[in-house]
Structures are given as C-alpha cells and as structure tokens.
Amino acid sequence: MPTESSARLAPAHPPEVSTPAIVWVLSVAGITGALMQTLVVPLIQDLPQLLSTTASNASWVITATLLTAAVATPVSGRLGDLYGKRRLMLVCAASLIVGSAVCALAASVVPMIVGRGLQGIGMGMIPLGISAMRDLLPPEKLGTSIALMSASMGVGGALGLPTAAAVAEIDWRLLFWGSTVLAVMITFLIFKFVPATPTSVDPEPFDFVGAVGLGAGLVALLLGVSKGADWGWDSALTVGLLAGSVVVFVAWGWFELGQAAPLVDLRVTARPVVLLTNIASLVVGFAMYAQSLIIPQLMQMPVETGYGLGKSMLEMGLWMMPGGLFMMLVSPLGAKISRARGPKITLALGAFVVSMGYLAAVLLMGSAVGLMVGVIIASSGVGLAYGAMPALIMGSVPVSETASANSFNTLTRSVGTSIAAAVVGVVLAQMTMDLGPVQVPTENGFRTGLLLGAGVALLASLIAMAIPSKASRAAEESIEHEVATV
Q1: Which of 76, 143, 266, 445 is the most exposed place for a label (fewest CB within 10 A)?
Q2: Could you report the per-residue pLDDT of 44-80, keeping only the tens digit for each?
Q3: DSSP string of 122-175?
Q4: CB neighbours of 15 closer than 8 A, spacing ≥ 6?
Q5: Which helix (H) or strand (E) holds 449?
Q6: Pairing of the two strands 438-441 and 432-435
Q7: How far apart, in whole angstroms, are the C-alpha atoms of residue 202 and residue 207?
Q8: How much is the pTM?
C-alpha cells in the first residue's frame, strides 16, 4: 500500500495558469453541476403530457438524477484520488454533455430518464473541484477558494430556477440544448485552465465490490425515502427497501473494514472530526433543502387560500434568486472566520444563521419580500456552513484521500436533502384543506415545516459545537502545511 508521500507527484501548476483562473473555472464547474438539479423543476407538471406518460413514471426524471449523483459521487471521488481529479472532472463533464443531448432529443420517458441519470453523474465535479484546489492553490488562497466553490451549489440552484422557468416558456428542449452547450464550455475550460493534479505513483486496485455495495445500499435507501409517499410508507416495497438498505450497509461496512484499499476508509471516517462533520452535513443538507420545498410553494399558492402569494414560477424564481447570490457573497467571510476561529465555529455559526432565517420566514411569511428576507438569511448561513465542511474534512484525512472524503461528505448532504423531501412532504400532506376540487397544504402546515427547518438547523449547530476543538483549530493549519510541502 503506497504511503501518503509516495502517493503524490509534484503538482505545481504551470506559471501561465493563474490562481484566479483556476478558481473561476472550478467555481463555474460547480455551478454547472448544481444547475442540473433545478433544471426540470419548471417542467414537473407538464412532463407527463410532454413525454406521453403517467405522472408516476415522469417523477423518475427527477429520481434518476438523485440516484446516479448519490452513487457516482463517492465513486468518482475515489477514482480522482487514484487517477487524477482533473481527469475525472472531464469524465463528469463529458457525462453532462451526453446526458443533456439525450434529454434534448428525448421523445419518451425512458431516454429522458437515461439522460437525467447521466446528468446526475456531473454532480461529481463539485467535490472533485474542491479537492483539486488543495493540490493546485497556494495556502493563502485555499480557504476562500474552497468556500467559494462550496457556495456554488447554492448559486447554481438559485440561478437555475428562474432561468429554467423563463426558457421553458419558449421551448422546453432549449433547456437541455442550453445545458449541452454549457457542459461543452465547462469541459473546454477544465481542459484548458485546470492543470493535472497529483495521482498515485502505484495506484491500488479500485474497490469494485465496495462501489457496488455502496451503490446498492444508497439506491435502496434513497428509493425508499423518495418514493415512500407515492408507494405508501407502510407498503411492503418501501419497508423492504429501507430494511434492505440497512442490511446492505452493514455488510458493506464489514467488507470495507477488511480491505487494504477500500472505496471509503471507514476508520478515517470514524474519526471524531470527520464523523461529526458528516453528521452535521447531513442535517444542514436537510435544513437547506426544506426551504427550497416550502417557500416556493408558499409563493405560488393561490391568493384565494388567504396566505398564498399567487406568484408564477418565473416570479417565484426571481424572488428566490438573491438567496443564492448571498450564499456566494458570504463565502469569503466564512473563510476569514475559519482562519480566525477555526472552521468548527464557522459551521456552527452558519447552521445557527440558517435557523434564524427559518424563524424570519415564519414571522414574515405574509409577503414575498418577507420570504425573500428569510431566504437570504438562511442561504447566507448555508454559505458559511458549506465552506467550513471541506476545511474540516481535508484537515483530518490523508492527502491521498481528499477527493474520496469530500465526495462522501457531499453524499451525506445529498442524503439529507432526500430525507428533507420525504419529511416535509409528509408534514404538508398531513395538514391540508380543500381548495375547490383539490387539497392544498394549510398555512399551519407551511408554518410547521418552517419551524421544523429551524429546529433541524439548530441541531446542526449543536452537532458542530461538539466537534473536537483542538482538531478543528488544526484543520486549516493542516491543509496549508500539506499544500506548502508539496
């Protein structure tokens, strides 16, 4: 098994490639990957008619992206550690190109699902890009750059919603042709401006069994969580999937502990800093996504309900957009706090700010301006928290496992968002009223969902405070030291 030092090559980036160019390209790559999550939101109601299928089948257009992103992210992270992060980013970008083109040409639901699955693989660019920064950037630029790219996930979502709504009103296929062009552009930019990163001198065999096991467990878990409301939470299929995921994960963990070069090093993952950071990431992912489910519905709910604001999809997206922009604006502040007080404090503060954003939304939910204020506050907190997570992770794992560890951290956030979708869906479905021939969530249902988000975010802040302080303070110093000694 190669040692940490033998697993690296001299990675200094060429003098002609400036640090700002690398940061800009990697951030754009992150935004591009995140855009794919909100790309089809404006089409949800129309997909059955557009693809000549049922609403149940059409829902797989969203589920497919979720599943492939969850499975591909840890796999691409490990392959990036073994064979080069830039190389795997190009693979992810190529998958985006093919997937987007397939969706643009799709005339039925099956090719659309296949294309959306390929687009989900593109999400792997985000943790790969964050890890590449550790190899390519000078120590003094690392914290701010990592925070900036981490925030790109929110910016991509915030920009994607109104943009997709506007384009969809012209021609829905333009959404996917546009994403094809964007994916081609980011592929060229990565090839041109991102230098090759260090790879293992003598790469160990890739853990295919571990990859299959993790994928099977994730698919069972996320299918059960995301489809439970449609299939019934007490149905044999839902219960079987959720129980089966537990069995698979136990067997997978036992297998991974016996491997010399596992897909995920569970011993490293069990370190207090890494473990608590991943738990906090899952909870923050829940808190972040809950507002994305509740506030858009509140804005678009008919005014006849007495609490709905009657906004169109495009109007709603524009009201939500400032949240993503603030997420990126506060990321440098988060890096400064991490340098001064440690990333643990930044993570805890960010989660607390998210909680305050939810409470503001509860108090101001009677107007679009009030909801926008709540979104801005909560999104700013997410920007602080997301920038701190990679710093904590990378300061606590071997250099040769940064992409794998960051990918696993990104995965925990995705699991949190999936759980949020299920839980918020149950809350809103249980608190409804009749509006003509349909049932809609009540005002108390929305308020309960927002208060749930506030409570979960506060829990994330408490978890962050439990991260060992000594290790947290050493995280940034560890990153800078390792980069400086390359």
Answers
A1: 266
A2: 778 888 888 887 788 888 888 888 888 888 888 888 8
A3: GGGHHHHHHHHHHHHS-HHHHHHHHHHHHHHHHHHHHHHHHHHHHHHTT-HHHH
A4: none
A5: helix 443-465
A6: antiparallel
A7: 15
A8: 0.81
